[in-house]
Specification:
Blueprint (H helix, E strand, L loop, with lengths): L1 H6 L52 H16 L9 H15 L1 H7 L2 H5 L12 H30 L21 H8 L9 H11 L7 H10 L21 H8 L4 H13 L15 H6 L3 E5 L9 E3 L2 E5 L1 E3 L3 H14 L6 H12 L3 H9 L3 E3 L10 H5 L12 H11 L2 H13 L3 H29 L6
Helix pairs in contact: 2-3, 2-6, 3-6, 3-8, 6-8, 6-9, 13-14
Length: 464
């Protein structure tokens, strides 16, 4: 009993140990009722500790190709010549990885490390094995980032990226869309390796004319087809990135100006009594009936930039495709496990879940160009947000709390409902409008005719 008490000391994350940045997805988010397709598990490639935790059968093929990526990175190096180049660079990379092993272990949560077991039957993974693991996985990721950085440069120069001088084509036989699956797998929370591993390998294998900015440029170009609409232009430095999923998270966050406005409004609300429950707004159909006009926001730099002013709710366009579910689930899982995040994606998901509660709500948002549905199962598209935010916790003090309060205050004013009902019933289309105007003209003429008839009776014309 005394031993249990001594072991109950919380882990310190001060100077002695960095806080972990890679976690297991919480059990409540794995709920198969809301996550039947298992959007947190890799399909094509396993990275980091995932390779030891029952890897899917379809991932074995790329394990050998990871070493091919390491060979290609070494062969492009201009500082050494064969036959000394390969053993020198490979040994140097391995030694650098071995020096990083304590930081690598500290980057994973205790639950993640415990999946391998730490008892007599499952001893801790040796440092050499960990170093080899991250060397192989890091070279695989670095190879892809440098490839897409070259593509981005060619596109910026007006060239074509049709032909690539690498061996990726060898993996498409028997699985033509393997690289699309790889893009998805690189953004799974449990399938990450620390970004400083990729930085260190880049420093060991880079040529003299290459800078670390290529890693960010290549990442954003690689995930361009998966990334939700738009990307703000705030610079991302490699030292601020924990892993690839975190890099994508930084790229889709609110711009600095919007974050400042939220913090300012938050300070103004600090004197108010906080709500015990998160804010809520009605669905899209009810909002329109209450006089709130829905509109696609143009020139937004992030899909999170929702605005409400003068009865108009402006929401940036978001395209939903078959990769959206996995992306949103893992972004939300990252927010739910890593404390130093504003949880804006979770807030956005819950907000959209309030708006879309039926196929009619989905039709309204699609009609306004706010949600563009490219999902294969179009009938179930309206349940997209309700599925991904099931069991998600979100704070009452979020970046949309002021907006939701403003929407609810506007909705409670009766004249807005009356005006909306008038517009809906009598001015919904040109033919109804013309009929109403014609009826008003006839009514006006009838009133005038009655007036002049009565006026002539009481005020007859003097004929003298």
């Amino acid at each position: 009993m005394l031993d249990h008490l001594r072991c109950a000391v919380p882990a310190g994350y001060g100077d002695s140990r960095q806080p972990p940045t890679i976690y297991l997805v919480p059990e409540e988010l794995r709920n198969l009722d809301h996550n039947p397709r298992g959007q947190h598990k890799p399909i094509a490639v396993c990275l980091g500790w995932t390779i030891y935790d029952n890897p899917p059968l379809g991932t074995w093929r790329l394990e050998k190709y990871k070493w091919s990526c390491a060979r290609q990175l070494i062969s492009r190096h201009s500082r050494f010549l064969e036959p000394a180049r390969t053993p020198v660079l490979l040994g140097r990379c391995f030694r650098s990885m071995k020096r990083l092993v304590p930081r690598i272990r500290a980057s994973y949560s205790e639950e993640t490390l415990m999946t391998l077991g730490n008892d007599d039957d499952h001893p801790e993974v040796p440092d050499d094995v960990v170093a080899e693991m991250v060397l192989k996985d890091g070279c695989f990721i670095l190879h892809r980032l440098l490839k897409y950085a070259r593509r981005a440069k060619m596109e910026a120069d007006g060239g074509s990226d049709q032909f690539d001088d690498d061996e990726d084509w060898t993996q498409v036989y028997g699985r033509c869309f393997v690289w699309q699956f790889v893009m998805r797998d690189l953004l799974l929370l449990e399938n990450q390796i620390p970004f400083f591993v990729i930085q260190e390998l880049f420093q060991q294998l880079r040529n003299d004319d290459e800078s670390e900015e290529l890693l960010v440029t290549g990442s954003l170009r690689l995930f361009r087809s998966l990334r939700p609409q738009m990307l703000h232009r705030s610079p991302i430095t490699c030292d601020d990135v924990h892993h690839l999923l975190h890099l994508l998270y930084l790229s889709i966050g609110l711009p600095h100006t919007d974050r400042q406005q939220y913090e300012h409004s938050r300070r103004r609300r600090s004197d108010e009594l906080p709500s015990e429950l998160p804010q809520w707004i009605p669905c899209a159909k009810e909002l329109e009936e209450a006089g709130v006009r829905l509109r696609k926001r143009r020139n937004a730099t992030s899909f999170l930039e929702i605005k409400f002013a003068r009865g108009v709710l402006e929401i940036p366009q978001l395209e939903l495709n078959d990769s959206s579910e996995s992306l949103f689930r893992n972004l939300i899982a990252f927010e739910q496990t890593y404390p130093d995040t504003p949880r804006d994606v979770s807030t956005y998901g819950v907000f959209m879940n309030c708006l879309v509660t039926s196929p009619e709500d989905m039709r309204i948002l699609d009609l306004h160009g706010i949600l563009v549905n490219h999902l294969n199962n179009r009938k179930a598209a309206w349940r997209f947000f309700s599925d991904i935010v099931a069991q998600v916790h979100w704070s009452a003090d979020n970046y949309l709390v002021g907006l939701m309060n403003a929407v609810n205050r506007y909705r409670d004013i009766r004249r807005h409902k009356w005006r909306a009902a008038l517009a809906r019933n009598y001015f919904s289309n040109p033919w109804v409008t013309m009929s109403v105007l014609a009826a008003l003209i006839l009514l006006t003429m009838a009133v005038l005719q009655t007036f002049f008839t009565v006026y002539a009776y009481f005020k007859p014309t003097n004929t003298k």
